[in-house]
């Protein structure tokens, strides 16, 4: 039985990198089925994603240990994983369009992740989650209880063995400490009007300014609010006939699309961090 594994890496540009990777995989009885790379001429860095199969009992952790020698030679930061689905914990507040879309794609087998639980600071979306067979955990948040609520979140991440946290319109700002703890494994979605239309009622502000595009941005969570490395953006063209309600409708569509793509690409190991941006091998 063949198993698919994925190697991702980044390192300073120099000759021989691809040869070293392919020779290593060939030497361990592996066959490359997909290969993508990007040479960043500005930063002088090579980014690589290689998916491969092996017919024997080749374990990802054993291969990873063996590859460390190659990585040291070229100064690589790398990850070598097998085809086990990423376990995703979803956080929500009161708006359910992104959660509903994630559940649909998960049940259809097209999300690339296993949803393991839903955590919320409100009770509104419990019926949606439990109808899909997902545990729903209510963790109220107030200014006074925020540290305890964030500690409870980390406990739930450990309890459900979650590899990824998805903020599917979770309307609470995470502390700097929590953002650092979840570095590279927490994805947020917001409307692309930020930071141009900050504060309450962004779609009403956009309507007042006569915008021609509605968008949404999926990005990694960082201590800098809504400024984390961008994974995906979705844009929908509109015109003067769109009132705030219709703007909100198309905006929710854009949010669901951008978030689901970002989650899938992350879970397929197609997203590599590149300083404050990302390289996405679609």
Count of DSSP strands? 13
Question: What is the tally of helical segments?
Answer: 8
Strand-residue proportion: 25-35%
Percent helix, as a range, is 25-40%
Q: Sheet with the most strands?
A: 7 strands, mixed
The residue ranges in which pLDDT falls below 50 over 5 or more consecutive positions are none
Give Rg in angstroms. Answer: 21 Å
Indicate the topology:
Blueprint lengths: L2 E10 L4 H11 L2 E11 L4 E10 L5 H15 L2 E5 L4 E7 L4 H12 L4 E8 L5 H6 L4 E3 L7 H14 L4 E4 L8 H6 L4 E6 L10 H8 L3 E8 L9 E8 L6 H24 L3 E4 L2 E4 L2
Parallel strand pairs: 5-6, 5-8, 6-7, 8-9
Antiparallel strand pairs: 1-3, 1-4, 2-3, 9-10, 10-11, 12-13
Helix pairs in contact: 3-8, 7-8
Which key features would you list for this structure?
single chain, 282 residues, four-stranded antiparallel sheet, 31% strand
Structure description:
This protein is an alpha/beta fold. Helix content is 34%, strand content 31%. It has a 7-stranded mixed sheet with strand order 7-6-5-8-9-10-11. A 4-stranded antiparallel sheet has the order 2-3-1-4, with helices on one face. The protein has a two-stranded antiparallel ribbon with strand order 12-13. Helix 3 (97-108) runs parallel beside helix 8 and helix 7 (202-209) crosses helix 8 (244-267). The model has no long low-confidence stretch (mean pLDDT 93).
């Amino acid at each position: 039985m063949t198993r698919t594994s994925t190697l991702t890496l980044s390192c300073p540009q120099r000759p021989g990198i691809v040869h070293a990777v392919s020779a290593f995989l060939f030497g361990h009885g592996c066959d490359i089925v997909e290969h993508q790379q990007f040479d960043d001429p500005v930063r002088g860095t090579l980014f690589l994603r290689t998916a491969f199969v092996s017919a024997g009992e080749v374990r990802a952790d054993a291969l990873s240990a063996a590859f460390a020698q190659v990585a040291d030679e070229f100064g690589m930061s790398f990850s070598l994983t097998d085809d086990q689905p990423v376990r995703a914990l979803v956080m929500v507040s009161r708006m359910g369009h992104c959660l509903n879309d994630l559940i649909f794609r998960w049940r259809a087998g097209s999300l690339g992740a296993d949803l393991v639980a839903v955590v919320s600071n409100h009770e509104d979306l419990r019926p949606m989650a439990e109808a899909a067979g997902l545990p729903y955990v209510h963790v109220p948040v107030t200014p006074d209880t925020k540290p305890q609520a964030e500690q409870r979140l980390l406990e739930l991440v450990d309890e459900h063995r979650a590899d990824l946290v998805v903020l599917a319109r979770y309307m609470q700002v995470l502390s700097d400490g929590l953002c650092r703890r979840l570095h590279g494994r927490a994805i947020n979605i917001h409307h692309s009007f930020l930071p141009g239309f900050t504060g309450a009622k962004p779609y009403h502000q956009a309507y007042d300014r006569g915008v021609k595009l509605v968008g949404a941005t999926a990005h990694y969570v960082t201590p800098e609010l809504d400024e984390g490395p961008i994974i995906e953006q979705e844009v929908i063209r509109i015109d003067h006939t769109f009132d705030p309600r219709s703007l909100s409708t198309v905006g929710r569509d854009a949010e669901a699309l951008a978030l689901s793509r970002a989650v899938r690409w992350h879970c397929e190991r197609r997203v590599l961090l590149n300083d404050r941006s990302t390289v996405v091998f679609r």
